[in-house]
Design goal:
This protein is mostly beta strands. Helix content is 0%, strand content 41%. The radius of gyration is 35 Å and the shape is rod-shaped.
């Protein structure tokens, strides 16, 4: 039996969408799509540009060519779309616990918050009023930071600044008038005592 070689054929290929590689703004080594081919002998399919990449953000046209040594080769075009879904990284200061240095709390300093992204930071902001070097009140204050990259991915994170009231109460002497009741007893209220 003699089989006559025939020209290759290739079917349409659906578009491909892939995420960026981790910590980069492009994609590499895109998985080959399913390709329906015909012709004898069975064609070999190649892609241009190579699916090894890199493919930048957005859509890149790729030509698939089926060839088996019988001219003409068959081609079809499809798109590879690269999408950035990786949110920014925020290097938040560690939680801080400090003693109060006065009735108003304590001045607290901490390292500058840094932010990074595989495709670039568009905006960064502190959602809290207080910053490093501010007077933090006694108790726990939550610091919140937000970063948005150039492709709209957003990250938020928080750290805590706790100021502990470790100051012993002071004494403030002041005159007070105490009225005795019929039994000769008197009292003072907490309003007569001042915590310094």
């Amino acid at each position: 039996i003699t089989v006559t070689p025939t020209t290759p054929s290739i079917g349409p290929i659906s578009p491909i969408e892939v995420d960026t590689d981790v910590d980069t703004c492009s994609a590499t080594n895109v998985a080959a799509p399913t390709v329906l081919t015909g012709g004898y002998p069975a064609p070999t399919v190649t892609f241009s540009p190579s699916l090894a990449g890199p493919f930048l953000l957005g859509t890149t046209g790729v030509t698939a060519t089926a060839s088996n040594g019988v001219d003409p080769a068959a081609t079809t075009l499809f798109g590879v779309t690269v999408v950035d879904r990786q949110p920014p990284t925020i290097n938040t200061p560690a939680n801080i616990v400090v003693p109060a240095t006065g009735p108003g709390g304590a001045v607290v300093t901490f390292p500058l918050v840094t932010m990074s992204d595989n495709c670039g930071i568009k905006s960064a902001r502190r959602l809290s009023v207080l910053d490093s070097g501010s007077l933090f009140p006694i108790g726990t204050t939550t610091l919140t930071y937000e970063a948005t990259d150039v492709n709209g991915n957003t990250s938020t994170c928080t750290s805590l600044v706790t100021v502990i009231d470790s100051l012993a109460p002071g004494e403030l002497c002041q005159d007070a008038t105490v009225y005795l009741n019929a039994s000769g007893l008197g009292s003072i209220t907490t309003g007569n005592v001042v915590d310094l």
